[in-house]
Amino acid sequence: MVDPFGLAIALFGCVAAAVLAGIGSALGIRYVATVASGVLAEDPKKFGSLFILVALPGTQGFYGFLGAFLAMMKLGVLGELVPITFWQGFQMFLACLPVGIAGLVTAMWQGKVCAAGAELVAKRATEGTKGVIFGALVETYAVLGLLATIFLQMGVRVGA
User: What values do phi and psi take at 76, rounded to 5?
Assistant: First the structure.
């Protein structure tokens, strides 16, 4: 039998993963898009160099969605619900937190790093790749948050 409280807590973890990472992505994109818009006002030809920098902080939102989706699949939310206890739900909630928290924090910082990259493009248009590389270094920790969530979810035994 499915414990409604266990399921609710597990689903709250799914919400936390998706919403926190999504908020981080939105804020990160805002940081870099603000700077990039100023650069484009001066030289619209730099759009290609700036686009990747603006898009980069958005990946954390996808990671949060993926973490939430994988948890929902394990819980059977998209089909027949799997029996889950209160404690299994709590474990799933905790398993969803790494991708949500890492996504929130890394996307905001990545936005700031990419904004600095956009400033670099403003002064030296051919150096945009260096800004992308710096932004990708921050991305590493978002990926680690996603991996932690996946591995933790694998350790949660549901349906038994």
Answer: 80, 20
Tokens 């996603």 sit on residue: 146
The span from the CA of 113 to the CA of 136, in Å, is: 9
DSSP letter at 125 equals G
Helices 4-42 and 86-123: crossing angle in degrees, nearest 10, is 0
- Segment 107-152, tens digit of pLDDT: 999 999 999 999 999 999 888 899 999 999 999 999 999 999 999 9
Reported residue count of the chain is 160
Place of tokens 């991708």: 99
Is the dihedral angle over the CA atoms 113, 38, 130, 53 positive or is it negative?
A: positive
d(CA 50, CA 21): 22
Report all structural domains of the chain as residue ranges with CATH numbers, in order of start. 4-155 (1.20.120.610)
Residue tagged 């030809």 (tokens): 45
